[in-house]
Amino acid sequence: MLIISNMHYLSLSNYLKRIYGQKVYKISLQSGCSCPNRDGTISRGGCSFCSEGGSGDFAAPLLPISEQIDIGIKKVEAKLPKDTDHKFIAYFQSYTNTYGDTQYLTGLFEEALRDPRVLILSIGTRPDCLSDEMISELRGLQDRYGKKVWVELGLQSVHDETAKRINRGYPLSVFDDSYSRLKKAGLSVIVHVIIGFPWEEEKDILATIEYLSGLQPVLDGIKLQLLHILKGTRLGEVYEKEHFHVLSLEEYCSILVKCLKLLPEETVVHRITGDGPKKILIAPLWSGDKKRVLNTIQKAIREA
Description:
By secondary structure, this protein is an alpha/beta fold.
């Protein structure tokens, strides 16, 4: 538990150190999946905020999984002490990583879990792309390898109006159903939430957090993500024409602190801001100064 002033939350770094006794690093991988919101099954073009990289702009090249892992680990270890046995989370990040042939995808996930350097498998996907067969296979992998399997769901908001505006392509009831089935199978669930949609007021953002905080069983993890306006996205095109309001750093920190206060103590906070690729970032430009952003956030938390 990270305690700053009167406020506490369970950061991912502290959680991993508590469970594994050391820092654990994340490497981003690709499964080669597309997304039903891009290939015409539901829609084309994806969610309005999503770049061509499918939220995986920092992932390794599309190569055999073992090679992707080696590339990802070398990149991370180049910045780390050489005399330490480093451990990793294999994060399938780009697009929808349970959208495809279940047995084929299970084979990719299993290849990652076989690597002794990998402690956790994390899979980014959509709630509407989780069959009972896939969930059963993921539970089987968790049991067989004795390593945690996390499923990351891109919800972004609980509000129907937002779901329509961002072209999410599924109702909240689908999220509820998938969450229930994943938890019943004994898998960990991490939910992605975006802060800063221009049509959502602070009360709307906090309503999303309150909803997630009330889930039973308790939510395992959450990623709180600043809305990035990126080139090549539908939202980017609208912004270039309308220049709608984007949050200032101070506004973001104020809302973030209120979100953290609402979360259950058991819920691990995996992210408190996120990075937008600088080469395609339109706004807010302050988000590109990561050191300043993190320092300002920590100051806001200390003063909360």
